[in-house]
Amino acid sequence: MTGTAAPTRGAGDAAKVVAVTGASSGIGEATARRLAADGHRLLLGARRTDRLAVLAEEIGAAGGTAVFRRLDVTDAGDVRAFVDAARERYGRLDVLVNNAGVMPLAPLAALRTDEWDRMIDVNVRGVLHGIAAALPAMRAQGGGHIVNIASVGAYEVSPTAAVYCATKFAVRAISEGLRQESAGDLRVTLVSPGVTESELADGIADPAARDAMKAYRAVALPASAIAGAIAYAVAQPPEVDVNEIVVRPAASAQ
User: Fold this and answer.
1) What is the pLDDT of residue 204?
2) pTM above 0.85, yes or no
3) Which of 30, 77, 98, 111 fits as disulfide partner to 130, beta carbons 3.0 to 4.6 Å?
4) Helix, coil or strand: residue 146
5) Between residues 5 and 143, which one has the greater pLDDT?
């Protein structure tokens, strides 16, 4: 892990220790930058450590605090080590942002079963691995906050997105179940972005789905808009639990 400088503000009780998965680009990167600017101390995780290194360095240059660690959310042991690294570095873990996700859209008839498996492994198992790693630590320290990133696809289904939407429906269900089971000792937030600037669409191999996504993304939100929603939920006082936030472009019907 690589360290950086002290935060510009947020010292004391307001400063939290936050771990972010999928932090090398898109919503994860924007969230890291926003929360660091808010004075929180960060552990960044993703497979692309070259990008994480640059991000941590830039956060440090801006006066924030961030370290990074390579992370594969499909590996339960790796996620446990990620959470342990945050606690070893900072002494605790206050917030886990389960952001890592993939979106290789295609019609079901294309039978891209390897892509189905990948979405289930990253989008669903990755979230469960994060919960399994963070929940015992947070309960032992007397509280914590788990933020799961879903999608508007957690509320509706569209052609080529059946499996992707199924994984996001699952994240929504898991989040609500965790909230109900953890009332009083854990905050749980589900953030569901509409179309947002990211690299998710880069993984779409199906030509028709890729072309449709290009048109859909014409009104995409900047990733900073979603980071702002996450920062809002994190900033609430301990007795306030923001359960669900849906953020769509004003020009989008979906």
Assistant:
1) 55
2) yes
3) 98
4) strand
5) 143
